Amino acid sequence: MKIDDLKLKINPFTWVFILLLIITGFYIELINIILTVAIHEISHYYVAKKLNVNMIQVEIFPFGGAAIFESEIFIRPDLEIVIALAGPLSNLVFIMILVILSEVTSISFDYLIKINVLMCAFNLLPGVPLDGGRALKAILSSFIGITRANNVAVKFSYVISFLLIYSGILMIINGNKNYVLIITAIFLIISAKKERKLSAYFNLRDLAYKKEEFYKKGCMNVKQIAVLENQKLIKIINCFLPLKYHIIVVLDKNLREKKRLTETELFDFAVSNGLYLTIGDILNKLK
Q1: Is Transmembrane helix one of the keywords UniProt gives this record (predicted)?
Q2: Beta bridge partners of 259
């Protein structure tokens, strides 16, 4: 399904979730959930558009959606935080509007308010692809690098999923046959695994963005990294920080400078020879 220039994809498990609600007769609840998710995702899309970030696809889950941006565009950490938090903020604004409408019209919007509170609170949890996890990843990436920051957020996702499954099992044991928590946990685990697989591409997207910015501005902040010859490319690349161009200073066993390599050169070798090549191997190829 395509809306304007945005492709809308419904995750197969979401259809299962919808079917369960229909079978159990929760029609009004389903409409409320659809409305809440729609407001949440439209807010992400609108803010991304305003920030000139092209969102090309949203995969819809019961707890929200996972956005995919154009592969050549790297989202700066500050922009990613703003786009991520736009969803939960929209739910908060909607809650305030519903409270005001309830006071003015005496119509009860209790369930819709509850769904929006849950949507907002759940999406602020620090696991990917939840908005809180994306914000956490963006913040951490400036200190420990994009790949390692993403892996931290993925681990949080697994912890959250375990707690959801545990809570769901307790509810079933106590006679409340509500499988929503367990289904949500499964969604989260699957999505987190996808995010982990994408980790290897984040630094490549970052380099593409930095090249574009470099050519546009003609200058960029530089960070130097000192490495020994036995270090593998993957370990060095995982140390790269966003919005900084890296110069790699190769040291010999006596910690004396032997060679300087640029971030671009390292990525070129990674693409042609793999991520497990050592710096020593690269120096041998350059001879």
Answers
A1: yes
A2: 250
How many helices and strands in the chain, by DSSP H and E? 10, 7
Q: Which domain holds residue 268?
A: 221-286
Both tokens assigned to 200: 């290897």
How does 167-200 read in b/e, with b if 16+ C-beta sit within 10 Å? ebeebeeeeeeeeebbbbbbbbbebbeebbeebe
Full-model pTM:
0.81
Q: Indicate the number of domains in the chain.
A: 2
Average pLDDT, the chain: 84
Q: How far is CA 145 from each of CA 151, 186, 229, 235, rounded to the nearest angstrom?
A: 10, 28, 21, 11
What pLDDT does residue 136 have?
94
* One domain for residues 248 and 121: no
137 and 182 co-located in one domain: yes
Q: Are residues 190 and 247 in the same domain?
A: no
Which regions of 54-157 does DSSP assign to beta strands (E)? 55-61, 64-69
Q: Residue 241 half-sphere exposure, CB side, CA atoms within 13 Å?
A: 15
